[in-house]
Structures are given as structure tokens and as C-alpha cells.
Amino acid sequence: MAAEKIDVHIPEDDILVQNCRQGENKLQDIYAGRSQAVGRFNSAQEARLSRLARVDIQATALLNGQEIQDVPTLEDLKQEVEVWDRAIEKQRNVVETLRGQFSKAVQTHPVQRARWRQIIEKEAMAKRLTAEAARERLEFVDALRKAGCTTISEVWLGGQ
User: Fold this and answer.
1) Can you give the pTM of this predicted structure?
2) Which residues contact 37 (CB under 8 A, 6 or more apart)?
């Protein structure tokens, strides 16, 4: 007998489910921001942005008629990555809390509760049938012994 496919109903209209989804999406956005910050830091590190190099970039901008903008130091870029790392840590904690709320919202939904009851009832029925079969087996073996059989073989009984 093939096992039936088990589906779980996710109540997407539940505010706790929506909050969890939003928290997870925000965490993904934070990961993307961190990735960009790491890229900027790595590029700056490869270019070895010394003070003179930063001044040179600003002078080139000035000569091209552009506004002079601050060029971040390696320390600034490193701190930016650390800020992203801290934001990730905090958002993971938020998502962990939201996941707990999500889990409760999903599991207490009437669809899950009804399915759970069906499974428990089916399991109880299977246990009753197993106990009944075990009792019948013992009674049958006992009847074979009473009939005079001294050796009881499952191989013989199974026809193998």
C-alpha cells in the first residue's frame, strides 16, 4: 500500500506567518547588503587605498568637474562589514522568534489539527490490529502445540 502524500497547510493570511516571511526576506536583504559591503572592502583592500590614493581619486574628480566626495578608508569599510554582520545577528534572532510564532500558527490551524487527529487515530487502529494479530498468533501456535506439533516453524507455515 503506497503511503499517501502528506501536505501541510500554511495559512498565508495569518499575520504571524506574514511577519515571519517578512523577517526572512529582510534577513536575505541584509545578507545582500553585507555581500556588497564585503565587495567594496575587498576592492579597496586590493587597491590598497592609502591616504595618498584617496586624495588622488578626489583630485581626479575635481579636475573632471565633479564634486569632491569622501573616499572611505579601509577602516571605514571594515566597520561597515562589521555593522552588517551585527545586523545579520540581530535579524537572525528576530527570525528565530518569528519562526516560533510561525510554527505555532501553522500547527494550531484547524487543518493541521484535523490531520493530526486522523494520523493519531490511524496509528491507534494499527496498534490495536498489531496487538490483535500478535494475540491470534500466540493462540494459533498454542493450538498447534495442543494438536501435538513439537516444532513450530514459520518457514513451514509460510509455505517456503
Assistant:
1) 0.62
2) 77, 80, 81, 84
- Residue closest to 94 by CA, chosen among 19, 11, 10, 23: 23
| φ/ψ bin of 65: left (φ > 0), alpha (ψ from -120 to 50), beta (otherwise) | left
Whether 157 shows a pLDDT value over 90: the answer reads: no
Owner of C-alpha cell 519562526? 99
pLDDT higher than 90, residue 54: no
User: Is the predicted pLDDT of residue 1 greater than 70, yes or no?
Assistant: no
Q: Where are the chain's structural domains? A: 12-108, 110-160
Distance from C-alpha of 32 to C-alpha of 38, rounded to nearest angstrom: 10
Which is nearest to 34 in space by CA: 91, 97, 73, 72? 91
d(CA 66, CA 20): 45
Amino acid letter at 81?
V
DSSP conformation letters of 1-66: -PPPPP-----TTSHHHHHHHHHHHHHHHHHHHHHHHHHHHHHHHHHT--HHHHHHHHHHHHHTTP
* Structure-block grid coordinates of residue 145: 502445540
SS3 71: coil
